[in-house]
Here is the input.
Amino acid sequence: MDLVPALREPLEQPLKSVLGPPTAKVMAEHLGLHTVGDLLHHYPRRYEERGQLTHLVDLPMDEHVTVVAQVADARLHTFASSRAPRGKGQRLEVTITDGSGRLQLVFFGNGVHKPHKELLPGTRAMFAGKVSVFNRRLQLAHPAYELLHGDSEESVETWAGALIPIYPATAKLESWKIGKALQTVLPSARDAVDPLPGALREGRGMVPLPEALLKIHRPQTRADIEDARARLKWDEAFVLQVALARRRHADALLPAVARRPRPDGLLAAFDDRLPFTLTEGQQKVSKEIFDDLATEHPMHRLLQGEVGSGKTLVALRAMLAVVDAGGQAAMLAPTEVLAQQHHRSVTEMMGELAEGGMLGGVENATKVVLLTGSMGAAARRQALLDLATGEAGVVIGTHALIEDKVQFHDLGLVVVDEQHRFGVEQRDALRGKGKQPPHLLVMTATPIPRTVAMTVFGDLETSVLDQLPAGRSPIASHVVPAADKPHFLARAWERVREEVEGGHQAYVVCPRIGDEEDEPKAGKRKPPAAAGEADAERRPPLAVLDVADHLAKGPLQGLRVEVLHGRMQPDDKDAVMRRFAAGETDVLVATTVIEVGVNVPNATAMVIMDADRFGVSQLHQLRGRVGRGSAPGLCLLVTEMPEASPARQRLGAVAATLDGFELSRIDLEQRREGDVLGQAQSGTRSSLRMLAVIDDEEIIAEAREEAAAVVTADPDLERLPGLRTALAALLDDEREQYLEKG
Here is the structure.
């Protein structure tokens, strides 16, 4: 991308030259703010009104909060302790109220003197700290506070105006200190370069950027906040969509080889041997893909669909169409288990059509090879040779496909399975192996809400498979509260026995392997405990090896129990999967290696241990391994979390619906969007400060249309220097490479 570097302007000044090194250091380390512009774009999370107090009853547990409230009473207690054996320990307890609820503040030791003098009954202040529970009551221990009675000149000036902005803060830097820092840099807002084209801004009746920044940080009225938010959301949506539109524009100019299947070729022969007809959805999506493959520009398409909607079949037909047209197709899978599974199911579906060059192979047949890191030297040499000569039309592999040694005769299509597991560099390296850019089909079984697809995959055309093939069975899901009702867990194992006695098989999934290597990591991976979850968090996550041993000797004694996890040797993993697929194993105790792609229609039950330790999408993925045949599926989500905890609510949501799109919305609302441009998958590093991907669907859709029009008229943005500057700020080097490589 040809982005002109922005001129050095007031908003690019480093914070340390404006606020001083200590404050700037905390802002950089804890909030990711480095320049005046960064700080101006650190928007308030909400606003308090002087005459309207916060609802203390709604305080979240274990979070750093800022509240505005009035002191109801304050009491100083003395006590004896190891540090103050003569009863000289001091504790100050202050009760604050906002009319809706009460909250206790506690201060100890030397920290009691200042608040004892200042926090007198009737005093109003802002308080910041982490909410905890002591003796069943909410409290803030040693909160920071700022008095609001406006005695001193500074206090009057700082808190002038009716609305008090509450900023996303940290324990090291309270909201009001951020507010004071903003007071210092706010005059620079007048120098902010407006990224929106004037006609677009005026046509939509939006305030200019400098005015929006002043209104968001120092609003006089609620209407000011609405004006500012509307404008700043548009900036984020529009600049992001311009970046994606430029990417689409550049891709459309690349050359590619059109790949059209022959009417009597490999694809036609494959379709003839299918024992069923494609669903309407599969036919529609296949047509979209074949239309793309027939053009002389690289296809960039995202194929998303429900668990078990038949994506692999659609992808295989696209691969066969490319082989028909004289090219090769590569499928990149995230794990060896999945690569082997895909290879097995593809060769089974193709039958003799996968035996090109072999005795028994038929006319039109091609060779389907597997390439993984753990293959033996001889098999690997043969696979590499088949790829280089073009003997193999289809290759399925892991990251091993990306290595320098791997050469293709004529790579025409790259299919990436489970997009979210691959780094951009890995996909890019594989795409670079074509003589011309190959067509790209990205598959994901984690359904993505439309807005997220428009934002995160805005450079990809999207195809959705939301129909399940005939013969798929419903899956009943239930939460098993093991701590509250231990007999429910005993009943879960009885249900597994009943399924096995009925001729079926079951999975038991655990979050951890349980060998020594795995122990220290388990502690690190623990998600932060939410309210009421602390007790269950204290023990390490349940492990495959321990659970399998317990089940084989106890509740499932007499059944054939085996284990599967990622650190087993590839041949061992493959042997376990083959035995399970053949019905020689009753119960498979596994980690999430079975999460995607594993297809055993006879497996009807799944018990997920410590289900609260998995994400919503992951649970949905896992559950999709059962109910793949004609018998109904059963998924039991075992947890020790208390009923009121957020984790239990999350599990309840998963049990209540099989709609992956609905679950992905819930998941996104809980995790936040993540950095939609960067490689982070969680919400910690969001490049979206104002825009909420789920709520602002309309803005994103409109911004996408406007961005496409702007880029079509002026691809290099020569007439829009403000937009170029905003784009350069959004796309730091890492993000720009991310977009470049897609």
About this structure: The mean pLDDT is 81. The first helix runs from residue 15 to 19. The CA atoms of residues 336 and 653 lie 32 Å apart.
